[in-house]
Specification:
The complex is a heterodimer. By secondary structure, chain A is of the alpha+beta class. Chain A has four helices and seven strands. The longest helix of chain B is centred in the last third of the chain and has 27 residues. The chains are: A alpha+beta, B alpha+beta.
Chain lengths: 176, 800
């Protein structure tokens, strides 16, 4: 399954790139990320709580960053396994300057198996899209130059939910 | 008895308990101390198993045991395949995967716990370490075989087979026209309303095992389970309680059935497993699954000369009971209802990383009928003639039966034109075609589809069956006069508790309510073959009839003894043996009534009968049980058993005519008429026949327009729930206008042909034919099922 999109982020390219390849940043932006540890050069072990619809569970994953070209490009390879099945995928992220802020183009291929495939298939595309939006919404919040969000407490549940919804709606209306 | 029961719309005696929710399915049987089983199933289509770690699962409170493939590998025998094809490759199919998994849903471990919830929770904690392998999903790629599923075979081809008679090459080369078409028969999920379920109870003291299973074949299952588990067959009892539908999916021996029996023997407690719907779609057999190429040769006048069908059959990862046999049934029925002098089928049957295919309502014959009927439509379109006329032209005439086909069968009896004529009359075919033309001119897309099918039923002579094709019945009259029928058939929705009682009530002259039909318990019923292949009434009902005739032969001897006459002087009517009225016939008197007090000339001396001149069958039964007034050398009791072996299959047929309207903007399909004239020989209960057709046609609508088991490129089952696997619902189904012709079968004394699969065989091509006809203004000649609005929209919008 392909996941593709372009996300505008209201922050300078260098800042965005730095946050994207930083484990602390990643752990904050990846929706449902409970733990993310560096296990090697650009490889991380993550525990994610994720799901599609009612099929939820904890995934133990490895995240690998490859092909790093600072401020321009990197490739993220994810391999996760959990009770609801498995998720495997890789995606390219390309950053470019815009008049204001940065444009992040992402394009990936995801394979899912197990219960999430057989039960959640019809919702996976939408869920992946939603997770991407959540990811970039959190990223943007941290990356905004004016904000001092780096010292702000981690968003609580309601704030996070609200940002998901607003991100989702924005995405939804953009398509129209 | 004034009215006979046979032929009447007698209400099903099964229904009150079903409607009131009082029936007992496997899950309704509650035994104390029952343990519950849940399965760990593969999430990969193809993977190596490095390790299965059950330690965490064992820590879950309530979990009693976890069994893996390693634990059972040398304890439980392989899952059986009954096919006897020469050179068939048969993979070693174990009840739990050990080193490799071959399809999504492949059972890997069984978790046993004190309740279902604990078992289910612990399943998530069994850690399976997989190395995933490339999956073989597309059946044509499987045939080409870059990845080999079962490595020792060297390729993915389970068998290749060619069959047919006549010179097909000559037919194809000498024909005026040869029309070719690729067609797809998608995989379908049978989706019985009740999923599978097994309850097993081992009695350690008696060393006996009872297995309750939702199956169509209790006796065959007993034999196979005994072999798999290694328990003597006479210590194993299989009970089939109420079964909520099978459609062929329970005509099988599944890993779970053997495993539950074995686990109960290990733990000495009852164990139960009830399949979830997700498991049902993953790991209960699928149906169909063929990719085929048709070549049909004809003359310019529409006379058929030959048919060739090259087919690649998608068998799935393993053979289940009849998996490899299904495509061969397609080959048998490729002559359809037509004279086709040369027929050839070339089967390439392949393994894929998917659940096994096997018998789903029709089992290979819907594929054949679809091939032939689509071919006839293509011929009609090519020659510009009416599809009904092409069919009529190629029918064997009613006086040509038994009719030998180039597939090697002898059709028992038929009058195909009579059924076509009747259906055309009901639908007013001529007017309909004119109306279609008129509405087409207005821009409306009306389509008419015709299918004149023939099917093969009453399976079957034992010569042609892997495990016997006979059926058994015991009829006994209890001391109180109640009639008990034990049938080896295993009805699960077909209504034989009613129809067999109708046969018995008529033959014995008793009230229908005095007859009870018992089935599905190997501890009670003599060995039987079971219910599938539209056989239960034609073969099993005949066994009931002949058993009753045997019983009556004995009853008449007892009656003659008690009435002190000769059995030939007794007549049986209204449930009574009576002295023929003063043996009037001996005098040749045509008067039905002999004047009182006047003895007829040739009358025999009035026997000493304590004044009795008649005995009811119940009185005879009591006398037989008390055994005080029996003729010499007569066994006490009144019962008889008969095993009926049919000489041939039967060949029901009929015509389905479907009228649809297609919305050119949305691609929506609306049924305007659905007319079916079916000939299933003699009818015991028209209401049951109608019910069989209703259900079958619904499933055909599903196949034609909605249903498809979809695996993605990695072999993940995408259509894994009923949210994704589209079954037709009430609003998708039209009103059915059903009628019949009645051509008795000479194969059995009841003249029955069978009707269980007519709907799924006859209907699909008529529906597809109607939709294609509606789109013919756009040059559409064929569309593959399921034909969704999207399919239609694409066909309309890419045709110009």
């Amino acid at each position: 399954m392909k996941v593709e999109g372009v996300q505008h982020i209201d922050a300078p390219r260098a800042k965005v790139y730095q946050l994207l390849v930083d484990p602390v940043g990643l752990s904050r932006f990846i929706p449902g990320c409970e733990q993310l540890e560096r296990t090697g050069d650009n490889t991380f072990a993550a525990t994610l709580k994720a799901g599609v619809g009612s099929i939820k569970g904890t995934f133990k994953s490895t995240v690998k960053l490859e092909d790093l070209r600072p401020n321009e490009h990197f490739r993220m390879v994810v391999d996760g396994k959990g009770a609801p099945g498995f998720v495997k995928g890789s995606g390219d992220l390309d950053l470019s300057d815009e008049d204001v802020g940065t444009s992040v183009k992402y394009s990936g291929d995801i394979q899912v198996g197990g219960t999430i495939a057989s039960v959640g298939q019809r919702m996976i595309q939408a869920t992946a899209k939603m997770m991407a939006v959540q990811f970039f919404t959190s990223l943007e919040r941290d990356a905004k130059p004016s904000g001092d969000t780096s010292s702000a407490p981690p968003p609580n549940f309601f704030r996070r939910a609200l940002s998901w919804i607003s991100g989702w709606l924005r995405e939804f209306f953009r398509k129209r | 008895m004034a009215d006979k029961y046979v032929g009447r719309r007698v209400k099903r005696t099964e229904d009150p308990r079903l409607i009131k929710g009082l029936a007992h399915y496997v899950d309704d049987i509650k035994l104390p101390d029952t343990l519950h089983v849940a399965f760990v199933r593969s999430i990969y289509a193809h993977a190596r198993i490095n390790n299965v770690d059950v330690s965490e699962a064992l820590n879950v409170p309530g979990v009693v045991a976890v069994y893996t493939g390693k634990d059972v590998a040398d304890k439980v025998g392989p899952v059986p395949c009954a096919s006897a094809l020469p050179d068939l490759k048969v993979p070693d199919h174990r009840v739990l995967a050990k080193d490799k998994v071959y399809f999504v849903g492949h059972p890997i471990a069984a978790v046993v716990a004190t309740d279902r919830y604990a078992a289910r929770d612990a399943v998530d904690l069994v850690m399976v370490d997989y190395d995933d392998l490339p999956a073989v999903v597309d059946v044509e790629q499987a045939a080409a075989g870059s990845t080999v599923i079962h490595e020792s075979f060297g390729d993915n081809i389970a068998y290749k087979m060619s069959s047919g008679e006549g010179d097909i090459e000559a037919a194809l080369s000498s024909a005026d026209k040869v029309i070719k078409q690729r067609i797809l028969h998608r995989r379908l999920a049978p989706i019985a309303m009740e999923p599978r379920g097994v309850l097993a109870r081992y009695y350690p003291g008696e060393e006996e095992l009872t297995v309750w299973s939702s199956t169509q074949i209790p006796h065959l299952l007993r034999t196979q389970l005994a072999l798999m588990i290694g328990i003597p067959e006479n210590k194993l009892r299989v009970i089939t309680p109420e079964v909520g539908g099978g459609f062929g999916s329970k005509l099988n021996v599944y890993p779970e059935e053997a495993l539950l029996g074995w686990i109960s023997m290990q733990l000495g407690k009852p164990v139960k497993w009830i399949e979830t719907r997700r498991e049902n779609i993953q790991a209960t057999i699928h149906g169909r699954g063929q990719v085929g190429d048709i070549e049909i040769a004809c003359k310019n006048d529409g006379t058929l000369l030959g048919l060739r069908y090259n087919v690649i059959a998608d068998l799935g990862a393993y053979h289940q009971l009849l998996t490899p046999a299904i495509p061969t049934l397609t080959g048998l029925m490729l002559s359809g209802a037509y004279k086709i002098p040369a027929i050839q089928i070339n089967i390439t049957a392949c393994f894929t990383n998917k659940m096994a295919t096997d018998a789903y309502r029709g089992a290979g014959r819907p594929e054949a009928t679809y091939v032939v009927e689509r071919a006839l439509d293509l011929v009609a379109a090519e020659l510009g003639v009416d599809p009904a006329e092409v069919r009529r032209k190629n029918f064997p005439a009613a006086n040509e039966f038994p009719f030998h086909t180039a597939t090697g069968l002898d059709y028992d009896s038929g009058d195909y034109e009579a059924a076509l004529n009747k259906a055309q009359q009901i639908v007013d075919y001529k007017t309909l075609r004119e109306e279609q033309k008129r509405l087409r001119a207005e821009g409306r897309l009306i389509g008419v589809g015709v299918s004149t099918y023939v099917e093969i039923c009453a399976l079957g002579p034992s010569q042609a069956m892997p495990a016997g094709g006979w059926e058994s019945a015991t009829v006994r009259i209890e001391p109180t006069g109640k009639v008990t029928i034990l049938t080896g058939a295993s009805p699960h929705g077909q209504g034989q508790e009613t129809s067999f009682a109708q046969i018995a009530a008529d033959e014995l002259g008793v009230d229908l309510n005095d007859v009870t039909v018992i089935h599905g318990d190997t501890g009670v019923v003599q060995y039987g073959i079971g219910t599938f292949g539209s056989r239960a009434t034609a073969v099993g009902g005949t066994a009931v009839l002949v058993a009753i005739q045997k019983l009556k032969a004995k009853a008449s001897k007892i009656a003659a003894h008690i009435l002190q006459t000769d059995a030939t002087r007794l007549s049986f009517e209204g449930g009574k043996y009576s002295l023929e009225k003063a043996a009037a016939s001996a005098a040749g008197a045509s008067e039905p009534v002999v004047p009182v007090g006047e003895a007829p000339a040739a009358a025999l001396p009035e026997p000493e009968t304590n004044g009795r001149t008649s005995l009811t069958i119940q009185e005879i039964a009591l006398a037989a049980h008390l055994a005080k007034e029996l003729p010499p050398d007569t066994e006490p009791g009144l019962s008889a058993t008969y095993f009926f072996e049919p000489k041939n299959f039967t060949f029901p047929f009929g015509t389905h005519i479907v009228v649809v309207e297609v919305d050119r903007e949305t691609g929506d399909i609306k049924f305007l008429r659905y007319v079916a004239v079916d000939d299933c020989g003699k009818v015991i209960n028209p209401m049951l026949v109608d019910g069989q057709l209703h259900g079958g046609i619904c499933q055909s609508i599903g196949q034609a327009m909605y249903e498809e088991v979809v695996y993605d490129e990695q072999g993940q089952l995408v259509s894994g729930t009923l949210m994704d696997y589209a079954l037709p619902r009430a609003s998708h189904v039209p009103n059915f206008e059903l009628d019949r012709t009645e051509t008795p079968s000479p194969v059995n004394p009841l003249g029955i042909k069978g009707v269980g699969e007519a709907g799924t065989i006859g209907a699909t091509p008529a529906i597809v034919g109607a939709i294609v006809d509606a789109l013919s203004p756009f040059g559409v000649k064929h569309l593959d099922m399921p034909i969704k609005p999207e399919t239609i929209w694409k066909a309309i919008n890419t045709s110009h």
